[in-house]
Amino acid sequence: MSIDIDTARRVAHLARIAVKEQDLPALAGELSGILSFMEQLNEVDVTGIEPMTSVTPMRLKRREDVVTDGGMPEKVLSNAPDAREGFFAVPKVME
To answer: Which N-terminal stretch is annotated as signal sequence (predicted)?
Structure first.
């Protein structure tokens, strides 16, 4: 697959990358090279191969998912502009 200059310009715009007009042909060439490499990877037969999450087989550490207050409410509330009775105090929105 080949990328033309208009497509390279659009990709740069979508990625919010400022690319000068004279650099667009080089960007189009680089993007075309990336796509041709991906096409080569699609030709590889990977049937029967399990996906990997790491190069070394290991299980992720597991922990029980428990909701806590973090064990330091005073420290957390010390950054609050206004705290009362162990909670953040905010101004009323409705009267």
So the answer is: none
> Which stretches of the chain are assigned E, i.e. beta strand?
83-84, 87-88
- Name which of 29, 24, 43 is nearest 1 in CA terms: 29
Does the pTM exceed 0.70?
A: no
**Token pair listed for 13:** 């715009």
Task: Give the residue-averaged pLDDT of 32-49.
Answer: 91
Name the residue among 23, 41, 33 with its Cα closest to residue 3. Answer: 33
Q: Is residue 8 a contact partner of residue 28, using CB atoms and an 8 Å limit?
A: yes
Q: How far apart are CA 50 and CA 46, in angstroms?
A: 9
Are 28 and 19 in contact by the 8 Å Cβ rule? The answer is no
Q: How far apart are CA 37 and CA 11, in angstroms?
A: 18
